[in-house]
Amino acid sequence: MKRASMIIDKAFKVSEVDPRLYGSFIEHLGRAVYDGIYQPGNPLSDEDGFRQDVIGMVKELNVPIVRYPGGNFVSSFVWEDSVGPVEQRPGRLELAWRSLEKNEVGINEFAKWAKKANSDVMMAVNLGTRGIADACNLLEYCNHPGGTKYSDLRIRHGVEQPHNIKVWCLGNEMDGPWQLGHKTMEEYGRLAEETAKAMKLIDPTIQLVSCGSSNLDMPTFPAWEAKTLECAYDYVDFVSMHQYYGNPDNDTEDFLALSDNMDQFIRSVIATCDFVRAKKRGKKDINISFDEWNVWFHSNEKDDDTMENRPWQVAPSLLEDVYTFEDALLVGLMLITLLKHADRVKIACMAQLVNVIAPIMTERGGGKAWKQTIFYPFMHASRYGRGTVLQPVLDCPKHDTSGHEDVSDVVSVAVWNEKDEELTIFAVNRNIHESMELTTDVRSLEGYRLAEHIVLEHSDMKACNSAGEELVAPKTVQRSTMEDGRVTSVLEKASWNVIRLKK
Predict the structure, then answer these.
(1) Residue range of the domain that includes 431
(2) Could you tell me if 352 and 441 lie in one domain?
(3) Which residues are catalytic?
(4) What is the tens place of the pLDDT at every residue in 208-263?
(5) N or C end of the chain: which has fewer CB within 10 A?
(6) Taking the model in full, what pTM does it have?
(7) pLDDT digits (tens, 9 = 90+) for 46-85
(8) What DSSP line would sit under 13-41, residue for residue?
(9) 8 A C-beta contact, residue 432 and residue 478
(10) Cβ neighbourhood burial of 468 (10 Å; 0-12, 13-18, 19+)
């Protein structure tokens, strides 16, 4: 068995974890809304048509903020169609996903759902086909108490108290040629600046997210961030990051190394933000909203066929990736990467939450809800990853893959919840051939004892869960011992590990 060692010291603080790091995303796409969170007439739904079993699973994940309504959808979103009496709302051709949007669920309904799920709303405005005035009108509708055109309209729609939405995205993926209303960096930078300026005049308490690059491989990265933030620096608080990974070549070793790319992507965006701050002689940091991240590739061919050959359906099955065990490992690695950068990554949204590249699935036509493999690393991180991130000093073997060199066998981070006197070590052994004995020095945390060691593992990297059978689920094991302030743990090959200590 290979061996690794690690030191965790309470003096090696990275940052307090912003709870919004465990956010998610609901877009009007596929079956995320209709047949996902909303299914009137289902015995499992409440009086408002929201599926209570789905809400229960969202509460298990403890999701503090949910981005809405897109995504690519937002770039042709006419928000006025989504409010008022439902029977008077028009249907629309939804151009991003070539579907029919019936507007049965809109802003007020979603805000009600979010409240039931114990989440806040992170609203996106349409800067693709619309602009400054529409963004301001929507903000007034949502946040102004009353006595104006749009706040009084909300009150007439039966919502007396403002939604008080605090985080707003200035468009979505505006650097992407696929985006309706795609902009150059100069065009978007000026539009973001003027929209942000106007919105903060209406409500100075909001936080604004400027669109960053759609992924690491965009040809305009990182010049896009440098130019757009130079324009909007004085008014925005965050820049967005988006990144999806896949394994189309069935190369598991290289797939599990992709979290290293994510780490480099974050470091590059931080460096660009700090360059803009220096150039502007600024006093504030631009932090990161990593508001789309996940594994996404399984359903691509099917989705292309549906949108091209069977367009304009209501809630078609789109982006319904069924996740494998190895996908769950990469999700765990991505969560560790986000935690390691908790000093600058303050918001993150797993994309998405229900049915669409999601940890939660529902059977079509009113069947049961079930948990995908990726549900569990997210649940563990959200449940135990609250507190202060401690930077581990790790010494472990490395390996090369087809596309990466010097890939560490073990990736780990620790979160210390000083208030509850708990320490949680998250660790992935991404060596798919050999187990690892990890010795962790925790002598700085006097009086702590080993509480439990939870694992997610499976002999088949392609094992999936389904509505009928849960093949991949966490279990508690006896693979850690503690003596004289040192924890010795066996990390099985290709495994997600949660090692918890209590005082």
Answers:
(1) 2-10+388-502
(2) no
(3) 173, 292
(4) 999 999 999 999 999 999 999 999 999 999 999 999 999 999 999 999 999 999 99
(5) N
(6) 0.97
(7) 999 999 999 999 999 999 999 999 999 999 999 999 999 9
(8) EEEEPPGGGGEEE--SSTTSTBTTTB-TT
(9) no
(10) exposed
